[in-house]
Specification:
alpha/beta, 232 residues, Rossmann fold, 7-stranded parallel β-sheet, 17% strand
Length: 232
Amino acid sequence: MSKVCVVIGVGPGNGEALVRRFCQEGYDVAMLARSKDFIERLAGQLPSAHAFVHDASDLAAAPSVFARIEQQLGAVSVLLYNAGGGVFKSAEDASVDDFEASWRINVGGLVAAFQAVLPQLRQQDTASIVITSASAALRGRANTAPFASAKAAQRSLAQSMARQLGPERIHVANVIIDGVVDLPRTRQAMGDKPDDFFVQPAAVADAVWMLTQQAPSAWTFELDLRPFGETW
């Protein structure tokens, strides 16, 4: 099996932690993000991390970036779709464009990446696709209509992919993060919160790594992660 991992959506937090975890495990990691400066700095720290500037919402660009990854690193065996975000408004206040923008990054970007990488995954004995999701996929709060509806659609898409690809030994898993990820901006906004209030990116990366190592006789489709004190 080729040890090539692609992480889409690399920034401070979960994206960086995923890159570091899979580099630690001996993978060549292709880092895909819009921010060239951040991924190039990270590539300078990690010899097995490689920067590819890519906007996940540019759906037509996926085939070319995955072709370059295969040419430079080899066939991909792990895809980690960490790109996300969306518009947080009520269904009354959000525009159709707000809904479309949320769908494009959470659903469209995943479809484009999946279709581009699938021929490479099929070259492996086993392969994995792990999607970073959110509790909004399970419940639509009043002022999260565009984001929550896109995350719910992404979850359904992931389940459909898992059912299709399971017989080919391609493991698709969806990770629901229920909590506030520990980032400089969240620390600044919630300076009164203790350390154990936050979701630690390194712990998320450990859980994602575990999913990619599961035996096919006991695969997890959905894993929810939250701090021990989170109300749920």
